[in-house]
Amino acid sequence: MQKFLLLSLVVLSSFLSKAQDLSRKIDSLIQSEFKDINEPGGVFLISKKGKPVYEKAFGMANLELDAKLNTNSVFQIGSMTKQFTAIGILILEEQGKLKVSDPISKYIPSYPNGDKITIHHLLTHTSGIKDFTKMKALQDIAQKEMTPEKMVDFFKNEPADFAPGEKFEYNNSGYVVLGYIIELVSGETYEDFIKKNIFDKAGMTNSYYASDRKIIKNRAFGYHKKSTGYVNKTVINFSVPFSSGSLMSTLDDMLKWQNALNQNLLLSSKEETKAFTKYKLNNGKEIEYGYGWHLKNINGIPTREHGGSIFGFKSMAVYIPSEDSYILGFSNCDCNSPTQLIRDIAKLTMENSKVK
User: Fold this and answer.
1) Where in this chain does the entry annotate a coiled-coil region (predicted)?
2) Domains of the chain: which residue ranges?
C-alpha cells in the first residue's frame, strides 16, 4: 500500500511539474509579445477535453481608468464572428428553411448574377463578389447606421473579381449577405437569431452583438498605436461589418462555444460536419476552408482555425480535434496580432503532450 501511495505521489509530482513547466513556457512566449503590463494587452486560454488548463490576462483593459484586463474581459472578436454566421446558416438548413446549394437569387432576387452564386460560395469565400473592405467608398458609410439590405446594396453592383467557384479569396461581403439571408429566412434580426439559437443554447451569457452605447460589464477598450503613443480605436458603426465581424465575447464563452460544437448542442453531427469539410474549386483543387473555419495543420496534425481583426482588436483561435485542445487569444490593440503566437502556443502544447 505504501509503495502504491509513493508511486502515486511520484506520478502526481511529475504531472504537476510538467504542467508548471508548460505554463512557464507559455508565459514566456506571451510576454515576449506583450511586454509592458501598463499597455493594452491580451487574454489567453488553453483547454484540454473541454476544461481550461491555462487562463491568464496581461496588460490593461482601459488606459484612461488604469483598469487591468482580466480573464472575464469582453473583447470584440472581429472575423471570428463568421463561425457563428456559418453555423447559423446550417441551423436554418437543418430546420429545412434553406439549402446551402440554393442560389442567393432565391432570397435576394435583385442580386446581380445571383442565380449563379450559391450560399455555399458565400460560406467558402469562393463567390467572387467584391469585398466591401477593399472599396474606397467604405469611409463614406463607416459611421452610418446601415440596414443589412443597405449594406448589400453598397457592394452588390461592383464588378465581380472572378466567376463563382473559380477561386478562393477571403471575403467579408459574402458573410454580410449570409447574415441578411439569415434575417430574411428566419424573420428575426441577426442579433436575435444568434442569441436565441447559439448564445442561449450554449450558455454564452457574456457574448453580444457589439455596441458602443450599451453598458457592457468588463468591456475591454480597443486601441491603436501611433508614433506618439496609444489612441482610442477608430469608431465604426457595427451595422457595417454586421455578420462578418460584429460579435463580442470572452474566453470562457468561446470555450462554451467550442464545447457546444463538440457536444452537438446546436446541430446534428451530420449537419455540423459540413462546417469542417474541405471543399473544392471548379477545377477540382481543394481549398483549406470549410464554412467559417480555416482547415489547416500544425506539424501535419489537422487544425480548425480562425482569427479576427476590427478597429482596436485582434483575435485568434486554434482547435486541435485529435487532442480536443482549444487555444485562444484576444488582444485589445490592433498593433498586437495573436495569430502566430496562438499557433506557436498550440505547437508547444502538442509537443508537450507527446512528452511522457
Assistant:
1) none
2) 37-354
* Rg of the chain in Å (alpha carbons): 21
pLDDT in tens, 228-242: 999 999 999 999 999
User: How many other C-beta atoms can be found within 10 angstroms of the C-beta atom of residue 277?
Assistant: 12
Instruction: Tell me, letter by letter, the H, E, C secondary structure of 31-94.
Output: HHHCCCCCCECEEEEEEECCEEEEEEEECEEECCCCEECCCCCEEECHHHHHHHHHHHHHHHHH
The 10s digit of each residue's pLDDT in 84-112 is 999 999 999 999 999 999 999 999 999 99
Identity at 260, one-letter amino acid code: A
- The number of angstroms, rounded, from the C-alpha of 191 to the middle of its chain's C-alpha atoms is 16
8 Å CB contact between 100 and 284: no
* Architecture (CATH level 2) of domain 37-354: 3-Layer(aba) Sandwich (3.40)
Non-local (6+) Cβ contacts of 241 within 8 A are: 78, 81, 172, 176, 310
User: All 3 cell numbers of residue 262?
Assistant: 463538440
Q: Exposed/middle/buried for 51, CB within 10 Å: 0-12, 13-18, 19+?
A: exposed
